[in-house]
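> forwarded from #structure-qc
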């Protein structure tokens, strides 16, 4: 079953998690024959749901966290639901597109992929993406890499390895894959912005809960002499996988989204 690692930081998640480039959603929309309905699974606060709603007549956005859904960005054509990834409640063969942004690694793959097979329309597209460790200047990157691997290393859930593998390796992906372009997120942030974002990581939450203290202030002290003042450009490379169904559908088509 999909896991909820973020209810406790949902407000900061809404404020500090980065959005995704418009070009990514343009690319997705150009590869679905219809634009009636998209299912955004593991939607968080709607970081992908809102741009999808600009390209699809209706978006059903689901997340296992009721707190995340409470803080989601409302739009007239987005229906937010608290639901697990493996039991969406959508009708059979009703979605032109199924997306998972920064969440696929938390799901029960077998059950979720069966749900995708039930929900997707013939010719529909499945797409999942995750962003990699953020990059800035080399000296900052060195400190961040140490924080990621050593300070937080023991506190990352095991599913995080799929992110480190850029959703590759032996990660199950029972779709007929298509070639995807390279996308990246670019933002201009202060040191305070970046530290607030790092505070939303699942491993940071587990560190706080397990040890009873917060690793972010110490990281800020390490970075302050390097960062000094002002803002920096922060870059996240995006690992994207997309494809069409290649396993039998579970039921005949019957309902519209």
């Amino acid at each position: 079953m999909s896991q909820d690692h973020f209810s406790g930081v949902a407000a900061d998640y809404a404020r500090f998690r980065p959005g995704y480039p418009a070009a990514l959603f343009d690319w997705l929309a150009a590869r679905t024959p219809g634009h009636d309905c998209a299912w955004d699974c593991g939607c968080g606060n709607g970081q992908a749901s809102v741009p999808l709603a600009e390209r699809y007549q209706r978006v059903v956005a689901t997340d296992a966290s009721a707190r995340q859904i409470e803080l989601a960005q409302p739009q007239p054509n987005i229906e937010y639901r608290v639901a697990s990834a493996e039991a969406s409640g959508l009708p059979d063969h009703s979605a032109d597109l199924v997306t998972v942004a920064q969440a696929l690694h938390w799901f029960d793959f077998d059950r979720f992929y069966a749900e995708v097979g039930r929900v997707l329309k013939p010719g529909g597209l499945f797409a999942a993406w995750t962003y990699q460790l953020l990059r800035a200047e080399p000296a900052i990157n060195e400190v961040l890499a140490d924080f990621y691997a050593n300070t937080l290393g023991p506190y990352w859930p095991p599913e995080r390895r799929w992110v480190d593998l850029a959703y590759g390796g032996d990660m199950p992906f029972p779709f007929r894959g298509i070639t995807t372009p390279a996308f990246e997120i670019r933002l201009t942030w202060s040191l305070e912005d970046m530290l607030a974002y790092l505070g939303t990581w699942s491993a940071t939450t587990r560190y706080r809960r397990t040890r009873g203290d917060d690793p972010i202030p110490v990281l800020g002290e390490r970075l302050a002499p390097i960062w000094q003042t002002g803002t920096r450009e922060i870059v996240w490379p995006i690992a994207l996988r997309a494809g069409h169904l290649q396993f039998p559908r579970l039921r005949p088509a019957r309902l519209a989204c």
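QC bot note: The chain has ten helices and eight strands. The first strand starts at residue 37 and ends at 41.
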